[in-house]
Write a structure and sequence with these properties.
The chain is α/β, with parallel strands linked by helices. It is about 45% helix and about 15% strand. The chain has a seven-stranded parallel sheet with strand order 3-2-1-4-5-6-10, sandwiched between helices. Strand 1, helix 1 and strand 2 form a beta-alpha-beta unit. Helix 2 packs parallel to helix 4 and helix 4 packs parallel to helix 5. It is globular. It starts with a strand and ends with a helix. Bound molecules: 2-amino-3-ketobutyric acid. The site of 2-amino-3-ketobutyric acid (AKB) has 11 residues, from loops.
């Protein structure tokens, strides 16, 4: 059977880049991008889908004979705290809708993005293991723990082949993140390239696990393409890239922009970051489906600066 993929949340930070990567890999006509509205630069097949509406998901799955779903729609950690019940409702309901449609319409594989936000005070902060105790401090984190368990439930009870990774903060030049605690690590590059002062909402030494977008997209496709018997973890895999603090990223940026100015004004996002791991142990992912990140902080910095310089030259 031909691979036909539905991407839900195709306009988001990951969705935009993943949709393009999947189009390149499987053919533009085999990828159905979907979101609440069509993105300005969206290319290929697009369907308006509100994932709160299970009938609409089903309609699109049936119409396009979908064999795989990547469900990326969610409200992230910082924005989620503004309206916890709405966040819970959206994050959990949309995911259950996707799982139900996958079960009833025999969708072959489903991808679920989890997050380092699943960890809380009960987990060790350095090299946090895959099976650490999960007591998240944000509603986003609680919804992701719940989502991971539903993923495993649908796999064990109904045989739906759900695969998941716990994304660290994702740094990319193609799209902006929206409402996360790790967003500063994208914004900072924009400010550096524009020669503007950056005000950081985390403390200078607040280290967090991070990953470059190309690594994150590659991991997503690799876990989905791995043989089913290799996927031993059916909740979600820790995914490591690198780990750094705002102070460390600033030091790298100053190699290229020695005059770059930064103020630190920690806000509620610092409290969120303090409950998250500083670094991640991803040995299960490395063992089961040969995960290996390629980008370190310096190669991320060089790539971000070069790509953003080009983007701004085009638009300024
Ligand atoms: C966030 O900061 O909320 C996200 C995440 C780590 O899941 N980037």
């Amino acid at each position: 059977m031909e691979t036909k993929i539905l991407v839900i949340g195709a306009n988001g930070q990951v969705g935009r880049v993943l949709t393009k990567a999947l189009q390149d890999r499987y053919g533009i006509e085999n990828i159905i991008a979907s979101d609440l509205q069509k993105g300005e630069d969206s290319e290929g097949v697009f369907e308006v889908v509100d994932a709160m509406n299970i009938d609409r998901i089903k309609e699109v799955v049936v119409k396009h004979r979908i064999t795989q779903i990547y469900h990326l729609a969610a409200i992230l950690s910082a924005r989620g705290e503004e309206n916890p019940l709405k966040t819970w409702n959206i994050n959990v309901k949309t995911w259950l809708n996707v799982l139900e449609v996958a079960r009833t319409e025999q969708v072959k594989k489903v991808f679920y993005p989890s997050s380092i936000a699943v960890f809380g005070r009960g987990a060790s902060k350095n090299n946090t293991p895959n099976d650490a105790y999960l007591d998240p401090s944000t509603v986003y984190g609680i919804s992701k723990v719940d989502g991971e368990n539903w993923a495993q439930y649908y796999y064990l009870k109904y045989g739906v082949d759900v695969r998941s990774i716990r994304y660290p903060g994702i740094i990319g030049y193609q799209s902006l993140p929206g409402g996360g605690t790790t967003d500063y690590a994208v914004d900072i590059y924009h400010k550096a390239v524009l020669n503007e002062t950056f005000t950081c909402f985390l403390k200078e030494d607040a280290a967090l696990p991070m990953i470059f977008i190309d690594d994150a997209i590659r991991a997503t496709i690799e876990v989905m393409e791995a043989p089913a018997e290799n996927i031993k973890v059916r909740t979600s895999y820790n995914l490591g890239g690198i780990s750094f603090s705002p102070g460390e990223i600033v030091a790298e940026i100053r190699e290229l922009y020695p005059e770059f100015k930064v103020n630190y004004k920690p806000d509620f996002r610092q409290d969120i970051a303090e409950n998250w791991p500083k670094s991640i142990d991803d040995s299960e992912a490395r063992m089961d489906w040969s995960w290996k990140p390629k980008y370190d902080l310096w190669s991320i910095t060089e790539t971000m600066v070069n790509k953003l310089k080009k983007q701004y030259e085009l638009t300024i």
